[in-house]
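Reviewers of the previous submission asked for a worked example of the structure-prediction workflow described in the proposal, so we include one complete record here. The input consisted solely of the amino acid sequence. No template or homolog information was supplied to the procedure at any stage.
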Amino acid sequence: MFPNKKARWSQTIHQHMRNQKSLYIFVAVLFMMGVVFGTVIVNMLDPNQKSGLLNYLGYFFRQLHEDQIAEPFVAFQHATGDHLKTIGLLWILGLSVIGIPIILILIFIKGLVIGFTVGFLVNQLSWDGLWFACVSIVPQNLFVVPTFIIVAVTGISFSLLLIRNRLIHHRGAIYPSFVSFSLLAMGMGILLIVAGGFEAYISPWLMKKVLPHTSWISSMIHLSLK
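From that input alone, the workflow returned the following structure tokens.
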């Protein structure tokens, strides 16, 4: 029973990926454009803006060094809440005909934020910044980004189905697709809870392990203590 069900799920996922291949490529490229644009913005910051961000980083590193960051459970609530709100918004936008451009904008902004954060760390802290980004930003986003892209693509696909079946042909069933889209969004929400747990409980531990081994970050901590 279970092997057959697993095989059906695998076949369904494979068919979905094949049918929406071009849409996945488009959304992934849009996300990467956001990442690139975010790194470009870093080079456009004036010295005062960079100084302000560096001061904030120094304060954050000091708080992390002294174990004064938010309690893991509080951080878990905030991280998970933000992720689930985004998934919920993508789901709602996918149910509307006019939601497609907003979905694309959200994916672009997600890439922009990641690109800017990693780009600023690398720009200011060189290899130390890259190493810190690898343990603080990349791990949870290995869950978050694919999840957002999957829900975004499925939402866009459902919106296009609405346009074809309700606005153009005025016929065709949409309820099965609605149920599938909703179940997928719920499943992705579970993955985001896992990502929130990693972000709250594992990432701070990894960041604290990195701090003593990065010369730039250690010097920033000492400067912020003065």
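The CA atoms of residues 130 and 211 lie 13 Å apart. We consider this example representative of the routine output the project will generate in years two and three.
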